[in-house]
Specification:
One of its GO terms (molecular function) is formate transmembrane transporter activity. By secondary structure, the protein is mainly α. It is built from 14 helices and no strands.
């Protein structure tokens, strides 16, 4: 044991000697080399520590990212407040509605109630916008939707040279969704998409009917004016570019107008119904790609079937009024009025009213389940 103590003492002396030797080194280069070696050793130790800690840090960062994503994807219905609902509804019913609407899981499809409540809240925001903002957005939609007709007419003119006109019309109609994708994803105000959406606050007693009618009037005016301006400028441009001819414009207008008024009305009802369903499905989707696919499928079906859409039809017939030889002003105005009414009926009755009624039945079911649960609890306590 005494030998161990002696060796330990000698080792300490050696350390002290080396330290003393360093302090008395005359050559500065040796000092610098010694300091550099110490610095490198310190950096290596730091790197080892960071590598050991990096898996934990990465896991922590990933958890934070997931939390942020979940926060960003939180459904808009979680912001539902009591003042978003009409005053006539009791506090108990308000709590029931919020419970049903917020019963949503990001890993599953949106619930029926959350879709409807989200649409009501979006519609409320539209009601609160200024008149200038509403008209400008609707005017933009009228311009953008004209891109569909411009593409269809160009394709029809090209295909009709090699195919019978009925086949050329069907194939050209495949381009019908282009303008709708631009409008819907760009969130401009298109009347047929907004028909059912804007009527929901009225059906639930949140907004008055007079305000809805005024809002519809602004959106229709913006869509029609924008569409007419597109027809005047872009269709004239297409004629000068020889993408299509006057005979092509007349032929397409007759394809739209060649029916009895009641047939056009029924076709417009179905088109309005499908556009209302489009608005519903777009709200149910969680990402942009899904929305594009849904808009393409439904509006493509409208174009394929040749159904009458008031805003696109406005451009189709007004183009023939300006540049063609077969459409009169009276015929154009009657057509526009019939199709607007048909689209409105289809969107309001077959989408807004039925979807809202279904939601109310669901609320009644939840209230009944809550009452039964309370009864069972009371019986247990007795």
């Amino acid at each position: 044991m005494s030998q161990d103590i002696d060796s330990h003492t000698e080792h300490q002396k050696d350390l002290q000697t080396s330290s003393t030797d360093y302090e008395h080194l005359a050559d500065d280069s040796h000092k610098e080399e010694f300091q550099r070696n110490q610095k490198e050793d310190h950096q290596e130790n730091s790197q080892k520590e960071s590598q050991e800690n990096s898996p934990n840090d990465k896991a922590h960062d990933k958890a934070n990212d997931n939390n942020n994503e979940n926060t960003n994807e939180t459904n808009v219905t979680e912001d539902l407040k009591d003042n978003d609902l009409p005053e006539e509804i009791s506090d108990e019913d308000k709590e029931t509605i919020k419970k049903v609407a917020n019963d949503d899981n990001l890993s599953h499809a949106k619930s029926y109630a959350s879709i409807l409540v989200e649409q009501v809240m979006d519609a409320k925001e539209t009601f609160e916008r200024s008149l200038g903002s509403l008209f400008t957005s609707a005017f933009t939609a009228g311009l953008e939707i004209g891109i569909s007709f411009f593409m269809i007419l160009s394709a029809f003119a090209l295909l009709s040279r090699v195919l019978p006109s009925e086949y050329a019309l069907v194939l050209a109609s495949l381009l019908y969704p282009i303008g709708f994708i631009i409008v819907v994803i760009g969130q401009s105000l298109l009347f047929t998409e907004q028909t059912s959406l804007l009527s929901l606050p009225v059906l639930n007693g949140i907004e008055p009917l007079t305000k809805l009618l005024r809002l519809w009037g602004i959106v229709i005016a913006g869509n029609v004016v924008g569409g007419c301006l597109f027809a005047a400028l872009m269709i004239g441009l297409g004629l000068n570019m020889q993408l299509f001819s006057v005979s092509d414009i007349d032929a397409y207008a007759e394809h739209v107008l060649g029916f009895e008024w009641w047939v056009i009305f029924g076709s417009a009802v179905l088109a309005g119904w499908m556009m209302g369903v489009t608005a519903w499905l777009v709200t149910s989707a969680r990402d942009t790609l899904s929305r594009i696919v849904l808009v393409t499928i439904i509006t493509g079906s409208i174009g394929f079937l040749g159904l009458h859409h008031s805003i696109v039809g406005n451009i189709e017939v007004f183009s023939a009024l300006l540049y063609g030889n077969t459409v009169s002003l009276w015929r154009y105005l009657v057509f526009l009025a019939v199709v607007l009414v048909g689209n409105t009926v289809g969107g309001v009755v077959f989408v807004a009213v039925l979807k809202n009624r279904t939601f109310l039945f669901e609320i009644e079911k939840v209230k009944e389940q809550t009452a039964n649960a309370k009864e069972r609890v009371d019986l247990r306590h007795r």
